[in-house]
Amino acid sequence: MAKIGNIDIGEFPLLLAPMEDVSDPPFRALCKQYGADVMYTEFISSEGLIRDAAKSVQKLDFFEYERPLGIQIFGNNIESMKQSTEICESANPDIIDINYGCPVKKVACKGAGAGILTDIPKMVSMTKEIVKSTNLPVTVKTRLGWDNNTKYIVEVAERLQDVGIKALSVHGRTRAQMYKGEADWSLIGDVKNNPRMHIPIFGNGDIDSPQKAVEYKNRYGVDGVMIGRAAIGSPWFFKQVKHFIKHGEEMPPIDLQEKIKAVKEHLDFSVRWKGERLAINEMRRHYANYFKGIDNFKPIRMQLVTLDTQKELLEVLDNIV
User: Fold this and answer.
1) For an engineered disulfide with 112, which of 24, 76, 177, 225 has Cβ 3.0 to 4.6 Å away?
2) Active-site hit among 31, 88, 102, 109
3) Taking residues 39-61, what's their average pLDDT?
């Protein structure tokens, strides 16, 4: 049984990766329904929280049924990160997660996210200060290193554990790789199989089929996997992985009716959550994934991405046969 601090998270937990503009409450609700064990908010700027920026503060919102849930923060200033940890703590999550993995230029080039991988001593001291400033378990999500010459993750993992983190998620790419190439899980395995490590290690990167989740579980011995892009438009991916782990075979494909039902739920919650206009815009990125592999879907997709009201969208969804 894996544990983050005192929180039981199951035998081989499946974690929903924090994804900007994706892991909002409407999407998380569906992932939870389909079996995600631990979820994280979208990453939140520490500076935004301190300034009380509306977009950052709204990301603190979650519902009781989502637990255990982690709020993920990023930033490059230790004082700001400590302050934002206190703000997060008052929202009463189960976990504080630090993002040391985001490769996006506007984050990493300011020394936050994966940017901190160029300054490991600062990464360690920032983590230590955050751990000291909260009673909640602190976890970290990071990458193998900044580039091919700095894959120090085995040593970095030890140092982060030494300053008190309760779990570590490792994305099997460097910052230089962004999301390209193949994730290198051998180093994630090295972190997990280092005899000095005693906290849960979760692997992340390229888990795009239930078979791969099970293969990597067996090959690298990780305590769980974190799933990101494979869940976009497929919140049932968690259920498919769990079925494969339990029965050793794929579950029957999700039928079209269930997909349509999930899209309607997602759309409805999004409209209630963020207003019709924004919800409809943001849902557009999900349709191609939700209806992947359906013959002659293009004309329907074109309608879904151009219509502007929930009523019109529901009419189209109701007429898909």
Assistant:
1) 76
2) 102
3) 93
